[in-house]
Amino acid sequence: MVLKLFLQKTSNVVGENMILKFSVVVIATAVAYSATKIEAAIDSQRTILIPPGVNGVTLEVGSRDASDDYLDMMASYLADLRFSYTPATARSRFDRLLNHYDETLYPDARPDLYQLADQIDTVHGTSAFIPNGEITIDPKTHQIEIPGLRKQWSQDIEVPELSGQRTIVIPYKIRNGRFLIGDLYEKNEK
């Protein structure tokens, strides 16, 4: 850019520099404005899922939140993976459950679940969890509570001390549209 408005060369250079600085400020402002609008657009995007077997229910997942129907379905699925098993299915069910763990909790959860799978093999344990009440979703604390009946058997004999009405608690978060969980536990355990 060559500015020939003034008689002195230095005045023209100073004028050019001021115009270039103004241009940089305008471009930086436009980029910052564009970035904030893109971030807002990404956060407001929602994906609507209609999986097979779910009729009349719309499941929505955003980048940081999800519909109650989606949370309800995921919580029931994960509680079933964790608390309903046989010696033959425990490891594969726990592997599928680990796919939903938050990355920061995965290293601690994996050995715990595999140790539980070893114990299930040793005692020939079987467990079933049947949800039987209203699932409670607390979006403020990011916890889901599922009341239900849990039955446990060892070598085909029911263990009454381990069976009965239980409430499963699932701490969760949704990050970039992905449902992640903390450690699932029975409410009376912690």
Give a brief rundown of this model.
This protein is α+β, with helices and mostly antiparallel strands. The chain is 42% helix and 26% strand.
SSE pattern = HEEHHHEEEEEEE
**Main pleated-sheet profile:** 7 strands, antiparallel
Query: What is the helix fraction of residues, given as a range?
Result: 40-55%
Structural class call reads alpha+beta
What report would you give on this structure?
It contains four helices and nine strands. It has helices at residues 9-44, 68-83, 90-98, 106-123, and strands at residues 46-49, 59-62, 125-131, 136-138, 143-154, 157-158, 164-175, 178-181, 185-186. Strand 4 (136-138) and strand 5 form a beta hairpin. The N and C termini lie far apart (70 Å).
SSE order and pairing:
Layout: H1 9-44, E1 46-49, E2 59-62, H2 68-83, H3 90-98, H4 106-123, E3 125-131, E4 136-138, E5 143-154, E6 157-158, E7 164-175, E8 178-181, E9 185-186
Antiparallel strand pairs: 1-2, 3-5, 4-5, 5-6, 5-7, 7-8, 7-9
Helix pairs in contact: 3-4
Top keywords for this entry?
Nuclear Transport Factor 2, Chain: A, seven-stranded antiparallel sheet, 9 strands, alpha+beta
